[in-house]
């Protein structure tokens, strides 16, 4: 095993050792899967796993009812919170990306991601970064699919209360960011112009007691 691969294995073991799926064998498999994918991030699951047995084990892991997105992220988030404590200033950078699964015709649970007929899911993430650009990890992440029946009803959605709008995820991310920070940490919240609920944002920021500054990017 080369030095780079050894470092990835060590990172996965240290970062994910606290992952809890109700079975230590699942945690062990999880660490191996992440290590394999980290070694070949551009590869498909079969390519990253290397052989048929490991590939089948990975798919069994993903099919296990105890393996949820929350359980997968929990250990990493815990480590992120630990790392954040070592910094006085942290940038909380958040944005939404789309996962296009239009080519996966038999996949269920997808929704529209644009106005061109593409289907998939959306992922909204908050990445903690030090003031000198060191990634500290994910503070918060949400994944969802839009309801196909709501397509074309933009004007109706505008009249909904903020808690029922898709953009409410920005405020949920603000709260999650606050929970990840210590009282001594100054967090700078970076987002794009879609975070348009300025007044609500500042009200929530004050209510959470955040030492937070907000910078919308152009």
Structural overview:
The structure is a single chain. This protein has 218 residues and is of the alpha/beta class. It has 8 helices and 6 strands. It folds into 2 domains: 3-63, Serum Albumin, Chain A, Domain 1 (Orthogonal Bundle), CATH 1.10.246; 73-216, Alpha-Beta Complex (Transposase Inhibitor Protein From Tn5, Chain A, domain 1). The chain has helices at 3-16, 24-39, 45-49, 52-63, 69-84, 154-158, 168-180, 198-208; strands spanning 89-100, 111-112, 119-130, 135-144, 186-191, 212-216. Strands 1, 2, 3, 4, 5 and 6 form a 6-stranded mixed sheet that branches.
Short summary of the structure?
With 218 residues, the protein is of the alpha/beta class. Helix content is 42%, strand content 22%.
The string of secondary-structure elements, in order, is: HHHHHEEEEHHEHE
CATH class group of the largest domain? Alpha Beta
Note the total helix count.
8
- Poorly predicted runs of 5 or more residues: none
Q: Averaging pLDDT over every residue, what do you get? A: 84
Structural class by SSE content: alpha/beta
* Main β-sheet description: 6 strands, mixed
The general outline is: globular
Radius of gyration: 19 Å
Distance between the termini: 45 Å
Helix content range: 40-55%
Q: Give the strand tally.
A: 6
